[in-house]
Specification:
The complex is a heterodimer of chains A (712) and B (134).
Chain A: E1 8-15, H1 21-29, E2 33-37, E3 44-52, E4 55-61, H2 73-85, E5 89-95, H3 99-111, E6 116-121, H4 123-128, E7 131-133, H5 135-142, E8 146-148, H6 157-170, H7 181-195, H8 198-203, H9 206-214, H10 218-223, H11 230-248, H12 252-271, E9 272-274, H13 282-290, H14 296-336, H15 341-358, H16 361-377, H17 379-392, H18 401-406, H19 411-416, H20 424-433, H21 443-453, H22 458-482, E10 493-496, H23 504-538, H24 545-559, H25 565-582, H26 585-592, H27 594-597, H28 604-610, H29 619-627, H30 638-646, H31 652-664, H32 669-679, H33 681-710
Parallel strand pairs in A: 1-4, 1-5, 5-6, 6-8
Antiparallel strand pairs in A: 2-3, 3-4, 7-9
Helix pairs in contact in A: 3-12, 5-12, 7-9, 7-11, 14-15, 14-16, 15-23, 16-23, 20-22, 21-22, 21-30, 21-31, 23-32, 24-25, 26-28, 28-29, 31-33, 32-33
Chain B: E1 11-17, H1 21-29, E2 37-43, E3 50-54, E4 57-61, H2 63-66, E5 69-73, H3 83-89, H4 103-106, H5 120-125, H6 127-130
Classes of the chains: A alpha/beta (712), B alpha+beta (134).
């Protein structure tokens, strides 16, 4: 024991989804954890540490999985981690109410030749269900120490750590499932062959490798190339598989699965007694309503509507507080600092950009609070069940629904919510569909344009744009599924856990981790983007500002001789900003873009206004305001609408084209940063290229069709 | 008989998973192995996924996947396969069952449909709806 004080025991925490792994992790580590990603993939990695009896423990939370095949990214990550990083021990968290399937994974860890300790988690729930589990007998039969725990209450964690210390000292028990005479004979032959390369068999445990080869596991077969006589072994394994499937009349991998389940059955028969309880399960009663063929969907929509109401009603107040805080901060800096680049950078660049992003934080917190509750109670799987049929028709997945709905609020949390989708292809399809849902920031742009040019029924026009977005997202997904995301859709095979009471602690950490990630990732990128936008709208500076000011003042006095001095000042300030913008880099870009946007009927001012639209869509409105020299007093958009209407180059058709363009154009930088974090650089760049092209083409079609029909 | 042929409330026993590769292995891993007994709890609206109780837990699978699992009725189970299920049982599994499938626009609940595969939507979307209309 004395040497333990110097070294750290590395525990890999594994288990099925819904087995209470996360609450076990939280119970063991408390708040000492950090969230990151496994290298190169977007699978979340949580690490934590603790000290117990003078020994340091380092915990790595592995993704929740059902088996150690190469079926999903999560499974590959888990097995690579165990093989490459060689943790000292695997602690497998088992759902005691569902041992049969949970032990299936546990046995596979045992085969990896690493000490395994199992936590019989949710043992309280199992007892309530009338399951009497003899942990000692189960431990002896399977050769895996079994400790009863209740992760949500932290019960049994000391006993679990004691067992871990003991198991690390003792090493792997060496006991493993027996697959029957025929298979064992073939396994022994393969093992002998695998051992001939010492380097290889040191990294990949021979017995595990032999089983994987019989199971026809792609990854295992691919790793054979590192083996000295890999080609020979590959042919050997193929021959054995063929022989076994002929002998048993079914595929070799299926026989292995059946043998494992048979082995588990045998162990459970002796160690678990079930007392029948004649009580209708709570879950079943709730599901009679919530998953009812006809009631299920209406109730689901009611819940979604409630979440929206709650998020935006409760979230609105802190959002306003934060906005006021940042407004106060700007005016404070305006007063405290001398006029110049530095002040302008701080106020117009950083605070305007970063402050805008931080103002969304309360909404993110509220959304993730609601989502975590739905997730932890088990309702999420039910929602997927209810919506899968509809979404599958378009190449999405039942679990895509929640992100798509969230997209109407804010694209950033919506894209983060796609993490519930396990298959990368479904996830990327959903991520690419989300931006078509008009987010909250696009609304002011629609309202401005519809209000200015469709005075009879602006509401209907805005509604039509929203609807167009929904239809586009579906059409676009069908298209992407046939092209860049080609391939079979992943099967919908999903566990339906019983309803469980979420814990405050679990929800808190979930919300905290997600919010912190948003603040950190979006914050850094937004900061950079804000500075960039500030630079291109500020430079190059116009030299003779006072001269210009007096010129504008003269002009204004001629145009509006009756105006009061205050009004004149306003007009001059607006003209000045217009002039500055026109001669800035952004203005040059806007003019440079003219050949591209001319076919859409956009003038250079719209081109300039679209540029900050990449940082945040609502900035399109304020930039147009500056460009059209209108005074945008707080909350008074009327003057800008008048100015737009008075521009001879603007008409309802151009407004409609612009709305379509804004609907489809790439989402804001914060969203793009999130797409990059979730799906990688390539998909972010694809999203930008795809949506820009699509926006242009669609806007052009709208313009062309409109011109033909109306002659505008 | 396939798992997708059975009505909710039916108990069954797995005979075999009829597809190999990853999907077959996954279904086996989740507990669909020979002799495993299960129950169809319910199906989703508009021919959506099925909720199946097997090995002491509940799992959701699409009817497309359920069609890949050969089952027999558990002893004492009482049900008759629906007419449409019998028609489907003739068709071998093809990957088109997993492609975007507009069938749901055309079909209602089993028994409510009058002309299968000849509606306007079916003619419009053509090939995709062919798999079940023979």
């Amino acid at each position: 024991m004395s040497q333990n004080t110097e070294r750290t025991i590395r525990i890999a925490l594994a288990g099925n989804p819904n087995a209470g792994k996360t609450s076990m992790f939280n119970a063991l580590t408390g708040s000492h954890h950090k969230v990151g990603n496994y290298p190169g993939v977007t699978v979340e990695k949580r690490e934590g540490s603790l000290e117990y009896r003078g020994t340091k423990f380092h915990l790595i939370d592995l993704p929740g999985i059902y088996s150690l095949t190469a079926y999903s990214l999560d499974e590959v990550v888990t097995r690579d981690f165990v093989l490459d990083e060689k943790p000292d021990i695997v602690v497998d968290v088992l759902d005691s109410t569902n041992l049969e399937r949970n032990l299936y994974l546990c046995l596979q860890f045992q085969e990896l030749g690493i000490p395994v300790v199992a936590a019989l988690n949710m043992s309280d729930e199992a007892e309530q269900n009338g399951l009497l589990i003899d942990a000692n007998m189960l431990s002896r039969t399977l050769g895996i120490p079994m400790i009863k725990t209740v992760g949500t209450e932290g019960k049994g964690k000391e006993a679990l750590l004691d067992a871990v210390l003991e198991a690390v000292e003792a090493g792997s028990s060496g006991k493993m499932p027996n697959y029957g005479t025929e298979i064992e004979a073939k396994l022994a032959l393969l093992e002998a062959g695998l051992k001939s390369d010492a380097v290889f068999s040191d990294k990949y445990p021979p017995r595990w490798m032999a089983i994987k080869l019989i199971e026809n596991d792609e990854h295992a077969i691919a790793t054979l190339s590192q083996h000295g006589s890999g080609a020979k072994l590959k042919a050997q394994a193929e021959e054995y598989r063929a022989w076994l499937s002929k002998h048993f009349g079914k595929d070799a991998e299926i026989i292995i699965t059946e043998q494992r389940y048979g082995y588990i059955r045998g162990a459970l028969k002796e160690a678990v007694k079930k007392i029948p309880r004649f009580k209708a399960s709570v879950t079943e009663s709730i599901d009679k309503v919530l998953m009812n063929e006809f009631l299920g969907l209406p109730v689901f929509f009611l819940i979604i509507w409630g979440i929206f109401k709650l998020t935006f009603a409760v979230g609105e107040f802190p959002v306003q507080l934060l906005e006021r805080f940042f407004a106060g901060l700007s005016s404070l800096l305006m007063a405290a600092l001398p006029a110049g680049f530095f002040r302008s950078l701080l106020v117009d660049g950083i605070i305007a950009g970063v402050g805008g992003v931080f103002s969304f934080v309360p909404l993110i917190v509220m959304l993730f609070l609601s989502l975590s509750i739905l997730e932890d109670t088990g309702y999420m799987s039910r929602a997927a069940f209810l919506t899968d049929k509809f979404l599958h028709a378009f190449g999405l997945h039942g679990q895509s629904f929640m992100p798509l709905m969230l997209g109407f609020g804010c694209t950033v949390p919506a894209i983060m919510a796609t993490r519930t989708l396990k298959s990368p292809r479904d996830r990327i399809a959903t991520i690419l569909a989300v931006p078509f849902m008009s987010c909250g920031a696009k609304l002011p742009v629609y309202v401005l344009l519809a209000g200015a040019f469709f005075t009879k029924n602006p509401g209907n026009v805005v509604m039509a744009i929203y609807l167009a977005g929904v239809i586009l997202s579906m059409v676009s997904t069908v298209f992407l599924r046939k092209t860049v995301l080609k391939g079979q859709t992943t099967p919908f095979v999903m566990e339906l856990p019983p309803y469980r009471m979420p814990t405050v602690r679990g929800i808190f950490w979930h919300v905290w981790d997600k919010t912190w990630q948003y603040v950190k990732k979006a914050g850094t990128v937004i900061l950079a983007a804000s500075v960039l936008i500030w630079v291109i709208t500020t430079f190059p500076q116009v030299g003779n500002e006072s001269e210009l000011a007096s010129r504008f003042a003269d002009e204004a006095r001629i145009e509006a001789p009756a105006a009061a001095q205050e009004q004149l000042d306003g007009i001059v300030a607006a003209r000045l900003s217009e002039y500055r913008l026109e001669h800035s880099i952004a203005g040059s870009i806007g003019k440079f873009l003219t050949p591209v946007i001319q076919p859409l009927g956009f003038n250079w001012k719209i081109g300039v206004a679209l540029i900050p639209g990449f940082t945040a869509k609502e900035l399109v409105v304020s930039t147009l305001g500056i460009l059209y020299g209108a005074q945008i007093d707080a909350g008074d958009g009327a003057s800008l609408q008048d100015a737009l209407r008075n521009d001879p180059r603007m008409n309802p058709l151009v407004a409609l084209t612009l709305m379509v363009f804004i609907l489809v154009m790439p989402p804001c930088f914060a969203s793009l940063a999130t797409i990059r974090a979730e799906a990688g650089n390539r998909w972010m760049l694809f999203q930008v290229g795809y949506s820009l092209t699509l926006a242009w083409v669609l806007a052009f079609l709208v313009r062309a069709a409109g011109s033909l029909l109306t002659g505008m | 008989m396939r798992l997708s042929d059975l009505n909710p409330g039916t108990s069954f026993s797995v005979v075999r998973v009829m597809i190999g590769g990853q999907i077959g292995k996954r279904l086996a891993d989740m507990g669909f192995t020979e002799g495993a007994e299960g129950l169809i709890v319910r199906g989703a609206f508009m021919h959506g996924p099925l909720q199946i109780r097997i090995r002491g837990y509940d799992i959701l699978i699409r009817r497309g996947e359920a069609h890949l699992i050969e089952v027999k009725l558990a002893e004492g189970a009482q049900t008759e396969p629906s007419a449409e299920a019998e028609a489907q049982a003739q068709t071998p599994y093809s990957t088109s069952a997993l492609r975007p499938n507009f069938q749901f626009l055309q079909e209602g609940r089993p028994g409510y449909r009058i002309r299968h595969g000849k509606g306007r939507m079916a003619r419009f979307f053509g090939r995709d709806t062919d798999c079940c209309g023979k």
